[in-house]
């Protein structure tokens, strides 16, 4: 790091020039979409007392033109953001025991479950994830799955102020590769699974996996004390578990693992199994539904045990766990048709969701109606696979738009339709998502289940011309009220 001029007193750290206040450090870093160094003048005009930059050119300009502004040149902007933020905020990350979960599917539910288990024994928690951020009892909106370092540390600092001692985070592959979590000391790291997703960013499955592995190597911090790994997942059981980890390893699964689920019973609104552990066995029950949640419960249980809970406390915490918004969320209705909203947005997640629905309608000879779409500006190769997954398991597919972003919705749908046409399923194509939801629900008869997949908890739809309010649960509830 290269510095110049006398030390200056600073009051905060910002990477967005629009949020800079007098006395702040502005961290200008090159990102994927924009370069923060373009906004140096704006930050200084708003009163930035110092600037940290990853651009030699910008640094030299500061030396020439803004000699009263403190400055530092760093090799990597995000590392600089993390290190300066931690210093200015008094290292709040050191006051919290951090558990972090990564994987393609299950991160949100696993994080919610672990937080519920920790809270059930009286521990105050911070939770940062896709749906919500929790600071003790306060619930905040989460704009990103994993925020930038300064935002995370600010949340941690708020948590420490209200007495939190534990933190639970989802860590996405993007955040790990981009080092948004630089310097965070992870105590317990969890790996749920790896299936194809985000290849528009990572390029290959190997690179996607390598990004996930960084959590277990430590990103600017020591490796985690404990690594919790799904042994039934090939990437976890065959690759990660057999790599040169420097952590205590806890392997979980249904087929294998020393922390194992046996005698699994799945019903709508209930999952029960015997959890076998080196500490003994116990009967575990949860209101969550489906085989995928057996894995989520096992991951959270292992992490809770690693954080010092007893097996009895884990079982009690699992029973008390709440429904996660947008994860197999049943839309309330007096109608005899079951409508479920779920975040499933990969072919693997869609296949698991449909398989669960098929089990639930088996006894009443019902049908599975699946509505789905594919996101724009994302991995295009998964679109036909999602279509195939929907068609293989469903009696009727309603193909619609998801978040098309800058792409043409009909072009996205055509690419997904290729996969549906490889199956025998009947398919209705309707670009308007609200109209598609109405079609799917009106097509259902008594005993059927309607799956509305892809957006889950989201409250907006991202279109080429901007973002508009859209809530799958609210739209479906409105349709159900109209036919009650």
TrEMBL record:
Enzyme class: ligase
Keyword field contains Cell division: yes
Positions of UDP-N-acetyl-alpha-D-muramoyl-L-alanyl-D-glutamate binding: 17, 145-146, 172, 178, 180
Molecular function GO terms recorded: ATP binding; magnesium ion binding; UDP-N-acetylmuramoylalanyl-D-glutamate-2,6-diaminopimelate ligase activity
Motif Meso-diaminopimelate recognition motif: where in chain: 402-405
PTM per Swiss-Prot/TrEMBL: Carboxylation is probably crucial for Mg(2+) binding and, consequently, for the gamma-phosphate positioning of ATP.
EC number assigned by the record: 6.3.2.13
Modification N6-carboxylysine, positions: 212
Protein name: UDP-N-acetylmuramoyl-L-alanyl-D-glutamate--2,6-diaminopimelate ligase
Organism the protein comes from: Tunturiibacter empetritectus
Gene: murE
């Amino acid at each position: 790091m290269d510095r110049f001029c006398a030390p200056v007193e600073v009051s905060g750290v910002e990477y967005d020039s629009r949020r800079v206040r007098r006395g702040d450090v502005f961290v200008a870093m090159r990102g994927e979409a924009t370069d923060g160094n373009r906004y140096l003048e704006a930050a200084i005009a708003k009163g930035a007392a110092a600037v940290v930059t990853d651009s030699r050119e910008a640094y030299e300009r500061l030396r020439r033109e803004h000699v009263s502004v403190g400055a530092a040149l760093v090799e990597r902007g995000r590392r600089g953001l993390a290190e300066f933020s931690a210093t200015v905020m008094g290292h709040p990350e050191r006051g919290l025991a951090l558990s972090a979960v990564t994987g393609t599917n299950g991160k949100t539910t696993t994080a919610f479950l672990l937080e519920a288990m920790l809270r059930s024994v009286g521990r105050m928690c911070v939770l940062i994830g896709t749906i919500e951020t929790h600071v003790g009892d306060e619930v905040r909106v989460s704009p990103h799955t994993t925020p930038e370092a300064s935002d995370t540390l600010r949340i941690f600092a708020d948590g420490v102020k209200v007495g939190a001692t534990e933190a639970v985070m989802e860590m996405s592959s993007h955040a790990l590769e981009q080092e948004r979590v630089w310097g965070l000391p992870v105590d317990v790291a969890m790996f749920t699974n790896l299936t194809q997703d985000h290849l528009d960013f990572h390029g290959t499955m190997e690179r996607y996996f390598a990004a996930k592995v960084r959590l277990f190597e430590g990103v600017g911090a020591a490796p985690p004390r404990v690594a919790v790994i799904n042994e039934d997942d090939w990437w976890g059981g065959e690759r990660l578990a057999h790599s040169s980890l420097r952590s205590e390893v806890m392997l979980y699964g249904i087929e294998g693992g020393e922390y194992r689920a046996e005698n699994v019973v799945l019903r709508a609104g209930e999952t029960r199994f015997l959890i076998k552990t080196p500490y003994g066995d116990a009967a575990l029950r949860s209101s969550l539904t489906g085989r995928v949640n057996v894995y989520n419960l096992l991951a959270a249980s292992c992490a809770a045990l690693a954080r010092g809970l007893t097996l009895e406390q884990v079982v009690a915490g699992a029973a008390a766990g709440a429904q996660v918004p947008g994860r197999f969320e049943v839309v309330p209705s007096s109608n005899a048709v079951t409508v479920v909203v779920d975040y499933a947005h990969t072919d693997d997640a869609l296949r698991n969701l449909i398989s669960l629905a098929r089990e639930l309608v088996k006894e009443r000879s019902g049908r599975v109606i699946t509505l789905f779409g594919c996101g724009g500006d994302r991995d295009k190769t998964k679109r036909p696979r999602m279509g195939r997954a929907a068609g293989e398991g469903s009696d009727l597919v309603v193909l619609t738009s998801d978040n098309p972003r800058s792409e043409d919705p009909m072009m996205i749908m055509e690419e997904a339709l290729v996969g549906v046409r490889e199956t025998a399923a009947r398919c209705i194509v309707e670009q308007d998502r609200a109209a598609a939801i109405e079609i799917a629900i009106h097509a259902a008869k008594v005993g059927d289940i309607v799956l509305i997949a892809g957006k889950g908890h989201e409250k907006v739809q991202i279109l080429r011309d901007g973002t508009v309010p859209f809530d799958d649960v609210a739209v479906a509830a409105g349709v159900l009220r109209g036919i009650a």
